[in-house]
Amino acid sequence: MEKRKERVVVGLSGGVDSSVAAARLKEQGYDVVGLFMVNWHDTVGTLSGECPWEDDRLFAELVAKRLDIPFRMVDLSEQYRERVVDYMFSEYEKGRTPNPDVLCNREIKFDAFLQEALKLGADWVATGHYCRVEHCEDGTHRLLAGVDGNKDQSYFLCGLTQEQLSKALFPVGDMLKPEVRERASALHLATAKRKDSQGICFVGKVDLPVFLQQKLAAKKGRIVEIPRDWEGYRSEEENDELAAREDVVTLSEPYRYEPANGKKVGTHSGAHFYTVGQRHGLGVGGTALPLFVIATDVVRNIVYVGQGHDHPGLLRRALHIRPEEMHWVREDLRQAVGESPRRYSTRIRYRQPLQGARLYTTEEGGYLLFDEPQRGITAGQFAVWYDGDELVGSGVIDK
Questions:
Q1: Residues 276 and 130 placed together within one structural domain of the fold
Q2: Residues 91 and 173 occupy one common structural domain
Q3: What is the pLDDT of residues 27-48, one digit of tens each?
């Protein structure tokens, strides 16, 4: 009797990466099924010229036909709205900046989509992410950075669990992006020269204020500029001394401003539409250096700004993660409360060069103390930590 082929359900998105992922799996002898997700129907706030999901589906179907694999479609828009978009609105309303792509992977691609794949008899689920997974003999599953350092997407998968990884395959994780393009061209896939998608996962590139105004009302408020020499800022020497004393609590506290600390330089339409580090969209000119958002106050509806990429209000040596927001991809590597701090390579946003830091785990949660000041630490974003190539943990930045 012929041995049954293992079935892999590939999330065909209509892009080149998932297309080549499906092609490689078929070449490797798997029974491959292409499954296209419809996760968003609305067009409010989407920018003109962006391809709607119907175009994505057409490209995905063309790839499936070319590869001679079954093609299916599933509508997960209700789950996506409840578990990703509603979370986005809630976070922005609180003055935080969420990362919907991390949530989409954890809640949709490797949960809701995984459940649909299992209904199709899947042994594995595959995507076109540039990362790798190692299924170890001892039953653990290691999430590894992609070989292409310019495209590594392990950051977006930082919320996955061992159970989710146990079913995951990432067929292009050991390839460089140009190699993926070349492979797609050689196979005459319709997606070979298609541009990579941008913007919010499955929603597309959006005008964020317009998109958020579906739930968050516009409200006129003040833009207040804080001078670089504001007396509330600590000096580098003071920060170094606090770091030497391992005073992570003080170093993780963001600076708190009052309108009297600066001067009004403009108005905005809602503090929750802005994020720390943002430069564009302020509508304020005439300054010697570009203005950047250094803080927002959604309660009083104030946006605080400062001049220059290196404004003291943008720089911080530590961040805090609430206990319930600490996540370990590898439970066997979990750092116990009170354990001596461990050194990791870390990042606080996608594609940021890795930063050296020490992780402290306390009753009050996790603290990352960085070797160098970090620019634009933003509440709601994800901090992740690596041991070598392996992503071992992550957490939502509290402050």
A1: no
A2: yes
A3: 999 999 999 998 876 655 454 4
Note whether 323 and 385 are same-domain residues: yes
Question: 212, 235, 260 — which closes off a domain?
Answer: 212
Whether residue 1 is contained in a domain is answered as no
Same domain, 293 and 345: yes
Q: Does 170 map to a domain?
A: yes
Query: 348 pLDDT band (50/70/90 cuts)?
Result: very high
pLDDT, position 44: 52
- Tell me the per-residue pLDDT of 194-250, one tens digit each, with 9 for 90 and over: 887 755 554 555 566 677 777 788 899 999 999 999 999 999 999 999 999 999 999
| Partners of 225 in the β-ladder | 263, 305
Catalytic residues: 104, 201
Does the pLDDT of residue 255 top 60, yes or no? yes
Q: Is residue 83 part of a domain?
A: yes
Residue 2 is assigned to a structural domain of this protein: no
* Mean local confidence (pLDDT), 104-132: 95
**CATH number of the domain bearing residue 113:** 3.40.50.620
| Residues 310 and 350 grouped into a single domain | yes
Domain housing 183: 7-212
